[in-house]
Amino acid sequence: MKTRPAGIGNVHADWMGSLPSKLSAMPLKHLAVPGSHDSFTFWVDVHAPVGPDQKVYVKYLATMFSVLAKKVMVRWSMTQNLTFKEQLDAGIRYFDLRVSAKPGELGNEIYFIHGLFGHKVRDGLLEISSFLGRHRKEVVFLDFNHYYAMEAEHHVYLISMLQEVFGSKLCNNCAVENVTLDYLWEKKYQVIVFYHHPSAQGVPVMWPGNKIPAPWANTTEPIKLIEFLETTLKERDKQGSFHVSQAILTPTVNTVAKGLLWGLRSYLVERNLPTIMSWVEAQKPGVDGVNIITSDFVDLTDFANIVIKLNNLLLSEQNRKPR
């Protein structure tokens, strides 16, 4: 797998393992965990066909204008700069994953996808597994939430691949309230896989998608995004699930047309990051607070560090409790 020169050091490569015992004993659903949106988009293949996740008119434009159209698509498909390893070193522990087979390709190979095809899923999983082998107290959430051009045999292949790559690191599906870092360390579990498809029913190490709701604001306006994040946090289930706050803006067709040559990062993300990050900094984890927070371009700010530090509020809260 291609890698970039490291832009962020491994300051938070072991942040979970370094948490105080008061926090490692808390349910993970009450801790603040940094995540990335469309985590795999640090590289996409401009030479492969446009992905089956795209609308018909996008496929038509890509066919008509070929490489030029795809170069524009790259600017709007890429939501991350860092590789999996670099994200892990920076402290990211939740990965938003969309996958697809290539229509017409022989075999059952699966690729990451967001408009354009990315790396083979196996390569990404091996990179994550290698990190976990070196950092035994770190735990990742792998959220497989979109599937394209996949038949039953593709799902069998992917689920088998996950079991083959991670083996005994995979956490069995159980009550979310029981999942603390202490519990995971004792069992030597490091990977929680959410598989949003009926194919995974009955597989003990595949968690159902309803245990990790990730409400999506689908807006280009930061104020509307923040209102949505606040509302969905208040409506968060008290029992039975983790929770993802997607602190991301989503371009419309009109947005892309206006900022065609600029791209997602320059036209939409960078100018609105200060507002979004101010909201993140003001959050508190815990029973009624944030859990997993995701962002685009996690390297553009001190995102992971800011989210991880929110957990200190849980310590000060405990210290204020009457003894």
From TrEMBL:
Protein name per the record: Phosphatidylinositol specific phospholipase C X domain containing 2
Source organism (scientific name): Maylandia zebra
UniProt record, GO biological process: lipid catabolic process; signal transduction
All residue ranges annotated as the Phosphatidylinositol-specific phospholipase C X domain in the record: 27-196
Gene Ontology MF annotations: phosphoric diester hydrolase activity
Transmembrane segments: none
Keywords: Hydrolase, Lipid degradation, Lipid metabolism, Transducer
